[in-house]
Amino acid sequence: MIEHLLLGQTLQFTGDALADWQAATRHDSAGAVLIRDGRISDVGPAETLRRTYPQAPVTDYGDALICAGFVDAHMHYPQTTMIASWGKRLIDWLNTYTFPEEAKFSDPAYADMIAGRTLDLALAHGTTTLTSFCTIHPASVDAWFQAAAARGMAVVGGKTCMDRNAPDDLRDTAQTAYDDSKGLLERWHGQGRATYAITPRFSPTSTPDQMSALGALWAEHPDCLMQTHLSEQVDEIAWVRDLYPDARDYLDTYEAHGLLGARGLYGHAIHLEPREIDRLADVGAAVIHCPTSNTFIGSGLFDMMGLASAGLRIGLATDTGGGSSFSMLRVMAATYEIGQLRGTPLHPAQLMWLATEGSAQALHVGGQIGHLGTGAMADLCVLDLASTPAIAQRRASADDIWEALFPTLMMGDDRAIRDVWVAGRRVAAG
Ligand code: GUN
Ligand code: ZN
């Protein structure tokens, strides 16, 4: 039995903080977390846990904040090296920057290098789980899951499928997309901490035949996730309308081919029709908010509170490299800013809940990851709430934990990550 007792401030969620953050939040200014064999086995006051587990080695983080590791519910690891590429909107951005970079993943050694680099950058930013699109190359999926296994991380990934409107060297077919995805999910889904997501990139780059093939594959493996993009930009929606003249709306291009379900993850989901919102809510699907990407690529303002009150699951994500940061702190700041523009600013507790519990629930692993509570995996992030002079001087006058935390959410970066634990192993020290 391997035990470790962490002391610090602790932040726990006991319910849906988006609905009622006061009822759902527990903060202890002198708290403790007991890790046993890779899982969290107790959380409580430091004094009590020290007395109960006198044999456990102790790491004392002082007044740093121990919380669940961040869960990034939508990103593209192959876009790590092209993050922050200037001046294009979605379709031109894909053609100019994204596709040439993704073509490089025909080289498995390159895929291995970028997968490892991405996960190390994520850990340095306090993110312990990522959900990634890979490229059309099956070896890019092997690279992703192998790099995560080497670090003990729970990740989601899948082969990106495209059989039209992409360069020759980035196209598969309906049949090879089915066969390769099937082979990969049989190899990886449920292996260690790996979860497979069937991955049609988005409706414009798949023919109806490919969509149907992937819908059939999902029906054969309903415990897998399915990830894609939905209604990100207005021009994209018009293009989808031309490509699928019989579809009632963008979501219908997925729905008609068996690609709408509870385990579906729909990235962006900004410009939704009422029917689309109703259907997503009916089936219990998740939409993933990618705020740093939505401002960077100029996509629009996600309606967080409207969609939450319609009953949708909502996850939070960087969308690297459409998103311009690897940091879920920056994603929380952008979520707050977009909430302000919509007249519905989120409370810091709601932002933290979304970046941990909300994303984990979107991935159907609520309570197992993104959760500071007994039985969850010990994937933890320790936040220094005074990591820069600018943050420290603001925090000095804070009256409560929320005022103490908010400057770090708004102004923090990887310097705020004091430590990270993955499956009960310490992986980074500030
Ligand atoms: N839509 C289709 N592919 C992509 C992508 O790689 N990034 C973003 N942001 N949107 C997409
Ligand atoms: Zn994306």
Automatic annotation (TrEMBL):
Pathway this chain belongs to: Purine metabolism; guanine degradation; xanthine from guanine: step 1/1
Key words of the record: Hydrolase, Metal-binding, Zinc
Positions of the Aminodeoxyfutalosine deaminase/Imidazolonepropionase-like composite domain: 31-56
Record text on cofactor binding: Binds 1 zinc ion per subunit.
Coiled coil: none
This enzyme's EC code(s): 3.5.4.3
Summary of the function given for this chain in its UniProt record: Catalyzes the hydrolytic deamination of guanine, producing xanthine and ammonia.
Family listed: Belongs to the metallo-dependent hydrolases superfamily. ATZ/TRZ family.
Protein name as annotated: Guanine deaminase
